[in-house]
Amino acid sequence: MKSIVLLATFFLFQQVYSQEKRQAELTLTEHLNLQEVITLARQRSTDAILYRHQFLSAYWQYRSFRAELLPSLNLGLVAPNFSHSLVALQNSETGEYKYVQDYAMRNSVNLSIDQNIAATGGKVALYSSLERLDQFEPQRYHLYNTNPVSITYTQPIFGSFNKLKWDKKIEPEAYERAKINYLEAMEGVTVKAVDLFFTLVSAQQKMKMARTNYQNTEKNYRIAQERFKIGTVTQNDLMQLELRMLNDGMTISQMETEVKTAQFELASFLGYPQSGVNFELTLPETIPPLNLNYSDVYELSIRNTSFKLDQKILLLRAEMAIVQAKANRGAQAEFFAQFGLNQSAAELNGSYRNPQDQENVRLGIQIPLMDWGMGKGRVKTAQSQMNVIQTQIKQQLTDHQQDIMIRVLQFNNQATQCRISEKANEVAQKRYDLSMELFKKGTLSVLEFNTAQTEKDEAVSRFITEVYNYWKYYYSLQQSTLYNFLETRNISEDFDKLIQN
Description:
Elements: H1 2-26, E1 28-33, H2 34-44, H3 46-68, E2 72-78, E3 82-90, E4 97-117, E5 122-135, E6 141-157, H4 163-230, H5 235-270, E7 277-282, H6 294-303, H7 306-329, E8 332-345, E9 356-366, H8 374-441, H9 446-481, E10 483-484, E11 489-490, H10 495-500
Parallel strand pairs: 1-7
Antiparallel strand pairs: 2-4, 3-4, 4-5, 5-6, 6-8, 8-9, 10-11
Helix pairs in contact: 1-5, 2-3, 2-4, 3-4, 4-5, 4-7, 4-9, 6-8, 7-8, 8-9
């Protein structure tokens, strides 16, 4: 029965190996290191493309705001405007209404140059218009009415809310934040690429170890079978090797699934066809001897990132809400003035001769006499929201300081962890190789051999984990500071290049 189980396990291993070999011949093999995976992720991943479009959306929103500060040229046209219907007409002397036939066409065209004034919230416009009236009944005639040039000015007064003034303060900051958010998001792509890279490396390494362990255990099992016949190996030792070989066979099957899953996830992230690529990944050969200073990292995290801008914009919006609530609570007034020329005539040329003066001045005032405390409540709400935001900002700053300190400590310690785990891996591998030789000579027990194999596997996995932690900590800090510590430069220097790509 044992022989049948072992034979089945052996054939299962051979079948899996042959299937993978055939599949490898049909797929593209990509040999990549960590930096190459990061580069591909930043260029081709769906996340990177999404973040680029999100920034472009913010860019055009900012362009639209900038356009509000510039003069705009507008053309208005109403043609045709035909009416053939009964309309009510009131007698100016008797007040009596009559329905009369309106059978006419009124067509008009106008051209204006408008300019918003951010400092005052007013608007000035230079205006020109032409209108033609065609009367068809009771008698047929036409008239032209022209406005060769007029200038108008509209100005809210009495402390009215000036939204454009606040937009001029907030929108440039929001655009700068959008640029920084894009850089931070791209560093987030890097962090995700590192995670997927080491997930696949770990799975591939475990698969490799499982195959090697199975082959070595199989050899030792055959040796133990011969020794069992002559009584130098107990049945318990033989069963331990058999159990080990069965476990290694199950591990191979399990790791095959994990490797394929990790392959699919990385391929999808990098924009490869998921079933058409096989990644052969290489671990970073060296660990850079970096030792970061907490004060420097913290200063960079405040100066380079969106952390401070987020707080500044929150405070500006809260301050704007208070000003708006106070403005809406009080009297509202708007001043309008128009100065220009106009004329009417039966012929087009005549409508531009001897134009008459045209003046129009208007002041409108609205005063709330009783609102049952609604205006005061809105002001108090806005002021309370400002206090909440200020308190939240103080807490965020404290949390940020603590977070940066912990992460710097973790990173500075991680290089030592990598060196120790690398040495432990070398020692464990040598011990395992020595155990193989001693077992073949019959001077090492099965229990000791299994222990050496387990420690070797754990040392390899620990080493990969420590290297992964090093690069995860590094790129996480790079994202939090937007500073390349390896090249000692700000990542914002690459902004134009990133957008073009």
